[in-house]
User: Fold this.
Amino acid sequence: MFKHQTAWRVRYAETDRMGYVYYGNYAMYYETGRVEALRSLGLIYQKLEDDLGVFMPVMSMQCKFIRPCYYDELLSFETSILEVPDSTIQFHTDILKEDGKLANKGVVTLCFVEKESKKRIPVPPFIVDLIKPWIGVDTESI
Amino acid sequence: MFKHQTAWRVRYAETDRMGYVYYGNYAMYYETGRVEALRSLGLIYQKLEDDLGVFMPVMSMQCKFIRPCYYDELLSFETSILEVPDSTIQFHTDILKEDGKLANKGVVTLCFVEKESKKRIPVPPFIVDLIKPWIGVDTESI
Amino acid sequence: MFKHQTAWRVRYAETDRMGYVYYGNYAMYYETGRVEALRSLGLIYQKLEDDLGVFMPVMSMQCKFIRPCYYDELLSFETSILEVPDSTIQFHTDILKEDGKLANKGVVTLCFVEKESKKRIPVPPFIVDLIKPWIGVDTESI
Amino acid sequence: MFKHQTAWRVRYAETDRMGYVYYGNYAMYYETGRVEALRSLGLIYQKLEDDLGVFMPVMSMQCKFIRPCYYDELLSFETSILEVPDSTIQFHTDILKEDGKLANKGVVTLCFVEKESKKRIPVPPFIVDLIKPWIGVDTESI
Assistant:
């Protein structure tokens, strides 16, 4: 599997009157996690859209809220890809609190769409090539 | 089942550069749907928090993105409760586009927490009483 | 002057841990106010962009925060146009709390940009024609 | 004057259908700029609220939108304090694009409120002590 870690400081804007991070803001956290994960693989999503004319709309999302996150906490987003993408690509994000405890788990599935035709396309082969070497590799043991 | 409908005009703030409603904004749509659904049942969520000291944090959310929603579309949020709440309460939201086609399906599960102790509590009995009469009733045939 | 009123229910998503509406959300309120004000004049901003290829980016914004707004309050956005637009158009928004007291004052100035060329253009004449009849008219006395 | 710089990567969530950063998101950028500026001075705003019971609500904001910011741009927030705070504190934020050009200028004025009484208080003396040494100092020449 491929696994990537990125840090995030919770801002005031993201909290709600309960004093927690608003549940709707986790989708933005998953976005940050997966875009930085792809960047670390050598894929800049902005270039995929602007240079190659490929969009990746979200098809589904599942979130589990395990512990609340608070203002100014320094969170860690751990984003993993467990399978070689095919017609879709799936990202698993674990959000860890500053004390290392698990706060949230998210799974987001995206597809590939050609900008011009707005039609779905299979995963571009170069994306498979970037990810394939990592699948089946036990990252924990590296 | 209990079913409630509320309208929503998509604002510029909610769109992204793809020209779609950003996938993270649907959680806010589900919130609007369920708060207005509860209001129509006679339960004002703000009073639940402020007068009765009961919070309803979100435990899980599932979203399916079926068709994109666009700027200035007049959406319809159809929020249903299918089961009598117990330790949790579950809301199903179908988001329909202006042309009536299904755009998105969301399921959000919330629990009940006592403000003071921050401990989980069972569903307050008066909430069961508000919802119970609707369960088992075929709202389509009314 | 031209004056238009629209209602808004504060959602949980818009609050912060202080229990107030987050100060960054007022820009979205001003957007809602001015888009509904233009709609009431017969100008649908979405059509201006999509059918006429004219964008209206924001050039400046000033906000005064007078009283906090709270969760679930039913606010009133009072949007006024005081002057005939020229190279820019200016909207004044007063946000009133549920009890009628003034919560916030905003002034937003926008310009006109041609979608294709991304160049600034003067105000389209039909927009002047929509607004001109209202300027110099005392709306309070109607 | 006191001047602090922090970096920010524009996320998809922050863009709108115009392809620009939505104008309402700059307030969140100013927040990030000033909170990190205060942190660099030794003041953690979260501790001010939670340990000392002092809130800093925003009283006014002015924004000038000079050039649009785009998705995935690496922005720089330059936050300055020009004057010793008194009954209020004022932050000036210049937002620079990835190419160094000025995108946006913001001025945000905040006051100090005691959490318990919800009454305004003068600036806590230790905040004056943190900032005073920097005022009158030409940071450019250091």
Observations:
- Residues 2-135 of chain D form a domain with the Thiol Ester Dehydrase; Chain A fold (CATH 3.10.129.10).
